């Protein structure tokens, strides 16, 4: 829903969240949290990302049933608890600044993530042992950008019909195994005009009908970008130094790459396999990781953030935030 909400907010549509959770979803929530003591923070984040209305779920505590344990915004007597007080502070802020907030649009710093529902459904059908394979990758890449103070918007392949929008300067394509010729053409034109493109793992393996491209990434991108899948293994074992940390690959998915002479190897494993590569194409830059960096960011967090830092040091130069932080206090 967050992908749809951000895209809609950026296009000027009025968007509301109908179930902003107020506390844990059940006694011991499997998702490790909802928003314990963070109702206020999450509410402000929603408002500042273009959301125009919030409905909280739920008002009263859950006293019994599947969701027993969620505290809601009030105590048993109906008096506001600390979560209700947080929501009230947000409401007062919104009421005071309603005129300014009504015309607010999220600052994406010119960054975007390409999301394809058909790819998500392809994974669900073909790789159903890991149903969150695609969304985990997206969550991780979003987290990577967020850790550097950037909140990317979302694009769909249909948004590229006239080319990547001019407002987008940095585009990430997480875990996207399927691209059409039209999408490939739009991505290549984007890079040639000065855009910075980041892809990962088996990007562009199939066309939109699920047929294998003869060269990966397909649609002419392997030739244009100078980066091609030469082999793919599901039993990769190696270590990738990452700043003060390291990522250990144990029986992992990994591409082995064939690279043009002018492709720069930014990171490599201890065994000498390229782990992050970059190449200037036209006025822009193409950056590729031959493994699932998004999923690692989602599951391993800080260790993988060291790798994303290398990605952001390359593509982040093209980001254009409305405000720049020139100094920060403790």
Structure description:
The structure is a single chain. The protein is an alpha/beta fold and 330 residues long. Helix content is 31%, strand content 23%. Strand 7 and strand 8 form a beta hairpin. Helix 2 runs parallel beside helix 3, helix 6 crosses helix 9 and helix 6 packs across helix 10. The longest helix is centred in the first third of the chain and has 15 residues. It is globular. The model has no long low-confidence stretch (mean pLDDT 88).
In short:
The chain is an alpha/beta fold and 330 residues long.
Q: What does the secondary structure layout of this molecule look like, with pairings?
A:
Layout: H1 2-10, E1 16-21, H2 39-48, E2 53-57, H3 82-96, H4 98-102, E3 111-114, H5 117-126, H6 133-147, E4 153-155, E5 170-173, H7 181-192, E6 196-200, H8 221-225, E7 227-242, E8 245-259, E9 264-268, E10 274-281, E11 284-289, H9 293-300, H10 302-315
Parallel strand pairs: 1-2, 3-4, 3-5, 5-6, 6-11
Antiparallel strand pairs: 7-8, 9-10, 10-11
